[in-house]
Amino acid sequence: MDPLLTAILSGTLVAATPLLFAAMGELIAERSGVLNLGVEGMMLLGAVSGFAVAQAGYPTIIAIITAAGVGALAALAFGVICLSLATNQYAAGLSLTILGSGLSAFIGHDFGGKSLQSIAKLHIPILSDLPVIGALFSQDPLVYAALALPAVIWWVLYRTKFGLVIRIIGEAPHSAHAIGYPVIAIRYAATAFGGAMAGLGGAYLALAYTPLWVEDMTAGRGWIALALVVFAAWSPWRVLFGAWLFGGVAVLQLFAQGYGIKLPSQLLSAMPYVATIIVLVMISRNPRILRLNAPVSLAQTFRAEG
C-alpha cells in the first residue's frame, strides 16, 4: 500500500505544479484589475520555447528562463493592446490563446517524436527515504518553487506596500492615480508577471512532466488555472487546494485506467476537469463571497484623467 500512496502523492504534486504557476501569476494580474484570458496560449508558447532551447542543447535553467521570458513578452503584447490602446480585455485574451496555440504548433512542427531528459529530482538524505511522505522530498526544484508560491504571493499581497498598491489599483484605479501611483505601469508589471508564470507552467509540462513536445499539450490547463483563480475567490491558499485537487484526480484517473476500470477512457480523462470545477463551484456557491473578493475594476478599461 505504501508504494501506491507514495506514487499518488508524488503524482499529485507534479500534476499540480503547472497549474500553480499559471494560476498564481494570473491571480496577481487580476488583483491589479487585468483579466488575461490568454493563459492557455502563454503556457503553450512557454512550453514550445522551453523545449526548443533545451532541444538545442542549452542548460535547463536557460530553457526555463527563456520560457518565462516568452510568456512575459506575450503578456506585454496583450498589455499594449489592452492597457495602452484600451481595447476589450476579453477579446484580446481570447486572441492571445488562439495565437499561442497556432504559433506553438508552427514552431513545434519539427519537434514531434523528440524527447528530453527530465529535470533531475532532488534527494534529501533520510527525508526522501521516509515511507509515503518521502515523496514530498524527492521532487525536482520547480515543484518546490510552485509549492512556495502561495506563501510568497500571500505575503506580497497582504504584508508588503507593493502588494497593497496592487490591491488598491485593482479596487480603485482612479483613486490610486489621484494620489500618484502609476496605474498603467503597475498593471503592466502584474500582467508581465502573470505571463512569465504561465510560460513557466508550460515549460514545466515540456521539460519535466512529460519531457517532450506534443501539440496543444496544455490540454486546457490554462482554462483550469483561470477557473481556479475565480472560484478560489482570489485566495492563494484556495488556489493551492484547487491545484492539488486537480492533480489528485488526474493521478487517480490514470491509476483507474491502469487497473482496467470499465469506463470509457475519454470519461476518465475528463474527470480531473469535471471534479475540479464541481468542487470549486461548491466552495464558492455563495455569490456574496465572490462579490466581496473580486477586484472591483477587473477587466475594466482605465484612462488616466488629469
Provide structural commentary.
The protein has 306 residues and is mainly α. The protein has a single domain, classed as ABC transporter involved in vitamin B12 uptake, BtuC. The model has no long low-confidence stretch (mean pLDDT 89).
**Strand percent estimate:** under 5%
Number of strands: 0
Instruction: Tell me about the largest β-sheet.
Output: none
Structural category is: mainly alpha
- Beginning-to-end CA distance, first to last residue: 67 Å
Provide the helix percentage.
Answer: 55-70%
Give me the secondary-structure topology.
Layout: H1 2-31, H2 39-55, H3 60-84, H4 89-107, H5 141-159, H6 161-171, H7 173-178, H8 183-209, H9 221-231, H10 236-258, H11 265-283, H12 287-293
Helix pairs in contact: 1-5, 1-8, 1-9, 1-10, 2-3, 2-4, 2-8, 2-9, 3-4, 3-8, 5-6, 5-10, 9-10, 9-11, 10-11
Keywords:
306 residues, mainly alpha, ABC transporter involved in vitamin B12 uptake, BtuC, 12 helices, 70% helix, globular
Short summary of the structure?
With 306 residues, the chain is mostly helical. It contains 12 helices and no strands. It has a single domain (2-113, 126-293), classed as Orthogonal Bundle (ABC transporter involved in vitamin B12 uptake, BtuC), CATH 1.10.3470.
